Amino acid sequence: MTTIAVLGAGKIGEALLSGLLQGGRPADELVFTEKHPERSAALSERYGVKGVDVASAAQLADVLVVAVKPQDIEPLLDELAPVLRPGALIVSLCAGLPTSLYERRLPEGTPVVRVMPNTPMLVGEAMSAISAGRFAGSGHLDLVEELLGTVGKVARVPENQQDAVTALSGSGPAYFFFLVEAMIDAGILLGIPRELAATLIIQSAVGAAQMLNQGDQHPVILREAVTSPAGTTIMAIRELERHGVRAALLAAIEAARDRSVELGQAHEAE
Question: What positions does the domain Pyrroline-5-carboxylate reductase catalytic N-terminal occupy (predicted)?
């Protein structure tokens, strides 16, 4: 039996708890921490999982999933370091934070696996990238991949690619939401009621995503299949290129990568 503690039961932490339970993990093998008593009580009632403090989680758990906001990591590590059991696995879901931070602040030899998930975890369709720290082996990665496989897909990447992954898939859902929002506004501009415009665009997005996911054709091929000579689509593509949408996306993702690097540097040893 492997006991798992989720430290920080916000949206991502709750989504992981839900996914683990739906994947067959017994409730008595799970605990969580939550600083707001009302939310803790609500989660316990909803999932049948016990809410505990950090010290109790460290005493009970074989795997501790850190799902707090990056700015809250320092006090959590201060609390965790004196009570962490030898051999306990730390799984970090915190954007930008390197495994070296945990290895430096926690007992020597603590295995750490860094994860970059994304919010589709809330509907069981996450894309999570995992990387091993200095003291984590293939068995640790296997375990983390099994756990996260209950809420989506998992890829293994070198840790030096995690900032880029954060920019691509970690922040990626926001780019799609932004695009859908703009397209709905365009529908309203063209005289279509908001509710209908939303239905048209969201279903188009769902269908396009399924075509990308289920087929083996490059996105360029799929786009060209919609783009008839002198038709409506090529006129739209010309405007997108004229306004630099492709360049803007490249710059946006690069900026997200740079911010991820900054978050990690803020916690480097002096």
Answer: 3-96
Query: What is residue 269's predicted lDDT score, i.e. its pLDDT?
Result: 52
Helix, strand, coil percentages (3-state) for the chain, rounded to 5, are: 60, 15, 25
CB count within 10 Å of CB 245 equals 13
pLDDT for the residue numbered 270: 42
Helix (H) or strand (E) holding 167, with range, is none
Per the CB < 8 A criterion, the answer to whether 8 and 66 are in contact is yes
Q: Cα(195)–Cα(114) distance, rounded to whole angstroms?
A: 40
Rounded to an integer, the average pLDDT of 246-259 is 97
pLDDT at 191 > cutoff 90: yes
Amino acid at 115: V
Strand 63-66 and strand 30-33: pairing? unpaired
pLDDT band at residue 43 using 50, 70 and 90 as cut-offs: very high
Percent of the chain with pLDDT over 70: 99
Which three-class secondary structure string do you get for 251-262? Answer: HHHHHHHHHHHH
* For residues 1-9, average pLDDT: 92
> Is 50 within any annotated ligand binding site?
no
How many Cα atoms occupy the beta-carbon half-sphere of 136 within 13 Å?
Answer: 26
Instruction: Report whether 229 belongs to an annotated binding site.
Output: no
251 appears as a binding residue in the annotation: no
Q: Is 182 annotated as a binding residue?
A: no
Residue ranges and CATH numbers for the domains of the chain are: 4-157 (3.40.50.720), 172-261 (1.10.3730.10)
